[in-house]
Amino acid sequence: MVVEKGYLCSGASGRNGGGVRAQFSSETNVRLMQESLRICRDFAAEMKINVWFRQGGYLFLVRSADSERNLVASVAVQNDCGHPTRLLTPGEAKRIVPELSTEGVVAAAYNPNDAVVFPWPFVWGYAKAAQSLGVRVRTFTEVTGFRTHGKKILGVLTSQGEIQTNRVVNACGAWSPEVARMLGVELPNRPHRHEICSTEPLKPWLTPLVADLSNGLYFSQSTRGEIVGGISNHDVPDGIDMESSAKFLSLYSSALIRTVPKLGALKVLRQWAGCYDLTPDQNPIVGQVDEVEEFHQASGFMGHGFMMAPVMGKLLASHLAGDVDLPLFERWNLRRFKEGRLLTESMIIG
Ligand SMILES: Cc1cc2nc3c(=O)[nH]c(=O)nc-3n(C[C@H](O)[C@H](O)[C@H](O)COP(=O)(O)OP(=O)(O)OC[C@H]3O[C@@H](n4cnc5c(N)ncnc54)[C@H](O)[C@@H]3O)c2cc1C
Fold first, then answer.
1. 2-10+121-189+281-337 belongs to CATH 2.40.400.10
2. In this predicted model, what pLDDT tens digit does every residue of 292-330 receive, in sequence order?
3. 307 CB less than 6 Å from ligand 1?
4. Strands 58-62 and 107-111
5. From 3.30.9.10, 3.30.230.10, 3.40.50.11030, 3.40.50.150, which CATH number describes the 55-115+190-275 domain?
6. What does pTM read for this prediction?
């Protein structure tokens, strides 16, 4: 059973940019995302819903020698994994996006296999297909507590009554720490507002999603022609907050116009926000916790959890069914923070 306190897509999964890429710095993330890309490509046929999968690639830009060194290392990891990313000079990047201003750009990386999907039908497609297999999806049902006996869960208390179960997966994104706390489990995740906007439609001109690792700017063109994008704003305090701000528009538009000067006259039609679910080492928290039996986590997916969800959902489901006991669930376990086993990932947007 899936329990959701709002409507499907009310959380970050209905508010994101739909970017799906395997350009990461760690081998784990590259390999997981190669599988996610495959699932996304076949999703429409398998789930019988159009998710507007558009494989235009991702073009990453860097603006410092340090970032260039990280990018070179990441590209090598990706190529070793069979994700054929090319390291480009600014001039070569301009051949992929001729409208790009490369002033200040020192290097770029391009992979044509990365993609963008439309998040809403993706979530609806999963929900419908799961329901057809017997999964119950309860929307507008808020988890308010748990009934326990010692370290055992006996039931989940919700705004619509109790659900009897001994096993729970906490996949509440930025709200995961709140829910974990109901069982006395402390997660180190921090919710952080991230804003995004969409413009009037233009005729198709932009093939890849462009991402600038120096400031977290990213933008892509949807199949409807809108430019959809966002940028990091580190001045926003931590907390659940999904308000829109004028500050974001000014940060985003300055960075966008610096990158593609021709977009200066473009009109923004819609602006919204969601919560990133940040962890101290920029990697998720997945798997069983020590404090409570059968209390599994799947949270802390930063700004790339939508793309991770297809593969992680599959792996976690097999794990719960007893089929696989992957080292990944140990590597990404909550206890790594206590044990000081922090991980790294440098290709983060946001
Ligand atoms: C603006 C923006 C752009 C992004 N761009 C991308 C991108 O391009 N690509 C990408 O891969 N990722 C992107 N992300 C990140 C991505 O959206 C998230 O990592 C991902 O959606 C997290 O999924 P989730 O299921 O963990 O959390 P969510 O989708 O937030 O789902 C958690 C759900 O739990 C529910 N909930 C909370 N508390 C309770 C309770 N007590 N009882 C019942 N239900 C509860 C919430 O209502 C919510 O719907 C972006 C995020 C934002 C905000």
1. no
2. 999 999 999 999 999 999 999 999 999 999 877 788 888
3. yes
4. antiparallel
5. 3.30.9.10
6. 0.96
